[in-house]
Amino acid sequence: MDGWDAGVMILSEILFFVFGWLFFMKQLFKNYEVHNWVVQLLFSITFALSCTMFELIIFEIVNVMDSRSRYSSWRYTLSSMLFLLIVVLPIYVAYSLIRSIAFIRSRYVASLTTMFWLVFIYFFWKLGDPFPILSSKHGIFTIEQAISRIGVIGVTVMAVLSGFGAVNAPYCYMTVFMRKVDQNSINQMELKLNQTLGMIVAKKRRLAHYERELQRSAFSRGTNDNTGLFHRLWGTVSSVATGGTLSDQIGQLNDEIQPLEELSRHLFLALVELRNMKDRLDYSQTWMGQYFNVLGHFFSVYCIWKIFICTVNIVFDRVGKVDPVTKGIEIGVHWMGFELDVRFWSQHISFMLVGVIAVTSIRGLLITLTKFFLAISSTKSSNIIVLLLAQIMGMYFVSSVLLMRMNMPLEYRVIITEVLGDLQFNFYHRWFDVIFLISALSSILFLYLAHKQTPIH
């Protein structure tokens, strides 16, 4: 690799690393004061290597750098990513998890960490047994053995996210799926909530009053020789006259307050849902809302087409031999009479397609990771969750390279195919179709049941 090519790769790695570091600080850990610099370093390195793989795919299409330099960059990037995903991240996840358990002594941490990593390696290796992912001629310690198993996990994650996204996007964007909510319904729900809260406040005031009375009562202090017989008898008579002992009334009030508090929580959540629906309806009337409505129709057509194509691919065991860009151009040339340079336009359109896929994949995964992290993280578990997300992110992007290879013309796949090795690429495309179909159909059923719930009144 000459100096110019090495400089390009080093500068790219630094920029991607800095972006990953800033994303970690400004998005994932913006609400936390304590940052583990090792976790931050591992996340940023994983992000930088993931982006570098997409960059190298674009370099293949645009023919940036010498072919030998690109091959060396591919080998370095993939080897580094595999070392992170199989060795470094699992070991540090196990180490962090064991260190967080208070009763484990420090001298046992190293041995337990090693044991956990060996268990991980065992199951990671056994993962490849049920799948026809590799030809038998490869040895145990080869890059193909690692990529083939990581590809199964990553493709599964990609297919699940893609299947849910293909269904959820039109459901969220299209106005036809939005429930009609007016301001009167919101006002009525607010009135019910305020009335319920008022009843709770009134009963809690009575409860506090009875508890103070109970503390001053003769019987709350037990039998006391200094208390006269007349005072104790008078307390008994007055309690019975007011409808039972103070303890009974306190118990009755607690029994009444508990269901009212449960009702208030239900009404509050219902009010929030109504307001969200109203905001969505108001937003749908704007220019951006109408744009997303049109986009939702496009996604619905894409979802139906993708489900149909996946079903056809599964039933007929079909995998495309030609990338979709070249296939589309050939259809335009042979069937519609267009006079186009297939090689020239396939290169430029493939460049734009791969660029769009790369940007949207990175953006979509980062948004998903942020939402997931903010939903389940805490000050104690945040570091472990970030490490697991980095593991998923690395597997996701390695699998993206496996699948994006099919979107590239044959002449641009040479180095990628050589670096990835003799994998059963057709298996990964069939596996993606199967998981995508299951995920999409399950998402349709789930959203249908959620949408058919009784509307809130």
From TrEMBL:
Residues 283-452 form the Abscisic acid G-protein coupled receptor-like domain. One of its GO terms (cellular component) is Golgi cisterna membrane. Pfam families: ABA_GPCR, GPHR_N. The keyword Kinase does not apply. It catalyses: iodide(out) = iodide(in); fluoride(in) = fluoride(out); bromide(in) = bromide(out). One of its GO terms (biological process) is intracellular pH reduction. InterPro entries: ABA_GPCR_dom (IPR025969), Golgi_pH-regulator_cons_dom (IPR022535), GPHR/GTG (IPR015672). This is Abscisic acid G-protein coupled receptor-like domain-containing protein. It comes from Diploscapter pachys.
